[in-house]
Amino acid sequence: MNHKHKKGWIFLILCPPLILLAVTWIVMSLWNCLLPEILGVKSISYWQAMGILILSKILFGGFHFGKGMRDFKERKMRERMQHLSPEEREKFKEVWRSKCENGFFNRHNRNNE
């Protein structure tokens, strides 16, 4: 087996947990340095900081380290657009332009008139 590949797998397996541990430590340090003086809250432990981090992930859906699905969707859309004829492409652009030209709020106001 090639040793380069072995090192790559070890790196992929070890990096995410190490990043989580480092980010947890940063959250704990920032909390303990800033918030007790600013808001008068108690200092937190390492595990409480990890809990806050996980809770924020659940509530706000953060931690997007990669583009993931967005890249996949853009690539798929680009492939679809490449298979369209120039006339179909122009028609597609016109339809989207007409849907987007008035903006979200103006569209709703026009329907109420």
TrEMBL record:
Keywords: Membrane, Transmembrane, Transmembrane helix
Transmembrane segments: 9-32, 44-66
Organism: Chryseobacterium paridis
Protein name as it appears in the record: Uncharacterized protein
